[in-house]
Design a protein that fits this description.
Elements (H helix, E strand, L loop, with lengths): L2 H9 L6 H12 L5 H14 L3 H12 L15 E5 L7 H10 L5 E5 L9 H6 L10 H11 L1 E5 L6 H12 L6 H12 L6 E8 L8 H17 L3 E8 L7 E2 L1 H12 L5 H17 L6 H13 L2 H12 L18 E6 L4 E6 L1 H11 L15 E4 L6 E2 L4 E7 L2 H14 E4 L9 E5 L4 E3 L3
Parallel strand pairs: 1-4, 2-3, 4-5
Antiparallel strand pairs: 5-13, 6-9, 7-11, 8-10, 8-12, 9-11, 13-14
Length: 443
């Protein structure tokens, strides 16, 4: 068995065996297969396809390149959540303490900003002192003591994924569903949880632009996940406008705290509660979706969700003072407003461009070495379907550079389409999937 023969085999549209895929993944991870050869393999697969069996074997090989984190010492059910990434998507920050306050353990290995989308780790690291670089033992200890912990991917967890993703990123092979499936599941399955709830975004601000693409990824995740005997459900949610108001790291932390205090934007609440209730259902904590919503409402009302967030800060080094004093968080120097050039109704929002505007302000990374400006970002004041008057504020720009801030205002005006036609507000949750069901969301 050699690398050249396997590239040739895939180039000729033949299927690879389990051992052949293991040979390629382990060889590349160990540095025995060169970048140029593995790049050729990736492109051959991208162009000629990979069937379910190959996808399963790729996922398993990437998973087995590292260690599985045994969580059997943690009492109760352990449920994880994954989002495919969006603009203003701070749901993990809300959902983790909220679900944990309902006596379901929430272990999360999260990611950083990618392209136009924000990253959970970057948002948490805008909190002074907060540590995401936990060792596996620290992670398990925190999870055992308070029922929730969020950390970044370590060298022990699916190292093949990190190396392969970096190569996919520079060889135009990122947006291929079997590769995405293997990447996501190799990390999620590395935590020995009882189940995973997926939030797959669809729309102009998502990696899966169309509902068809999102459903394809969702079905693949369920299909491959079931072969590993892991309970999984998927919600497909809309990303044709930013989620909530805040786009930017410390701004999203502030919005998270406000949410846990009971002050939630309706769209953000709908998505966060739906995903949280699905986690409670997977854990057997509630019998139906409505019961889950009632429990979540109660945990917000009685302050337990906010208390769990405070405990997470305490255990991972974050300054708990931010809960009452937002000025402790990084703040931008300049505040500028993007005002509607005419009256009408918001017809659409270019969410990808909103994400890119935040990136240009410094809220994300253009390269791995880019230093994030945690205080900058946007506050989106109008959504699709909202009526606006001429001169009314569409969005607020928070910047540390006036030239960048003025550029952001100009670009924001191109991102909002305003017309005379009335427009319905966007439905935020589109589909539900599990191993047996695909249906439109009806709650």
């Amino acid at each position: 068995m050699n690398t050249y023969e396997l590239i040739l085999k895939k180039r000729n549209k033949q299927n690879l065996s389990q051992k052949e895929i293991e040979f390629l993944v382990s060889g590349y991870t160990a540095g025995e297969i060169q970048n140029y050869q593995f790049s050729a393999f990736l492109m051959a697969v991208f162009l000629n396809g990979m069937n379910e069996e190959e996808t399963y074997n790729l996922t398993r090989a990437m998973l087995e390149s590292g260690q599985t984190v045994d969580l059997s010492s943690i009492q109760g059910k352990k449920i994880d959540k994954h989002s495919s990434g969006g603009v203003g998507d701070k749901v993990s920050l809300i959902l983790a303490p909220l679900v944990a306050s309902c006596e379901v353990a929430v272990p999360m290995v999260s990611g950083r900003a990618l392209g136009h989308t924000g990253g959970t780790l970057d948002k948490l690291e805008s909190i002074p002192g907060f540590r995401t670089n936990l060792s596996i033992e620290e992670f398990k200890k925190t999870l055992s003591e308070i029922g929730v912990a969020i950390m970044g991917q370590t060298d022990e967890i699916a190292p093949a994924d990190g190396k392969i993703y970096a190569l996919r990123d520079v060889t135009a092979t990122v947006d291929y569903i079997p590769f995405i499936t293997a990447s996501i599941l190799s990390k999620k399955l590395s935590l020995a949880t009882d189940g995973v709830v997926f939030d797959i975004k669809s729309g102009n601000g998502a990696f899966m632009r169309t509902e068809k693409e999102a459903i394809g990824l969702a079905k693949n995740l369920i299909k491959i996940g079931n072969r590993f005997k892991r309970k999984m459900t998927v919600l497909i949610t809309d990303m044709n406008e930013p989620l909530g108001e805040a786009v930017g790291n410390s701004l999203e932390v502030t919005e998270t705290i406000e949410f846990l205090k009971g002050n939630a934007p309706p769209d953000l609440k709908q998505v966060a509660f739906a995903l949280s209730s699905q986690m409670l259902l997977l854990a057997g904590r509630v019998k139906n979706f409505e019961q889950g919503i009632k429990l979540l409402e109660e945990q917000i009302r009685n302050g337990q969700a906010l208390e769990k967030f405070k405990q997470m800060l305490q255990h991972q080094g974050g300054d708990t003072g931010i809960i009452e004093d937002y000025s402790i968080l990084p703040e931008a120097k300049f505040r500028l407003e993007a005002k509607a050039p005419k009256a009408g109704c918001v017809q659409s929002i270019n969410t990808f461009e909103i994400g890119m505007i935040a990136l240009e302000l410094g809220a994300g990374r253009k390269t791995k070495e880019t230093k994030i400006d945690y205080g900058v970002g946007l506050l989106i004041k109008k959504k699709v379907g909202d009526l606006v008057k001429k001169g009314e504020t569409l969005a607020i720009v928070l910047a540390n550079d006036t030239e960048k801030g003025e550029g952001a205002v100009k670009n924001l005006l191109y991102s909002f389409k305003i017309g005379s036609q009335k427009k319905k507000r966007l439905k935020k949750i589109l589909y539900y999937l599990d191993s047996k069901t695909l249906r439109k969301w009806s709650y």
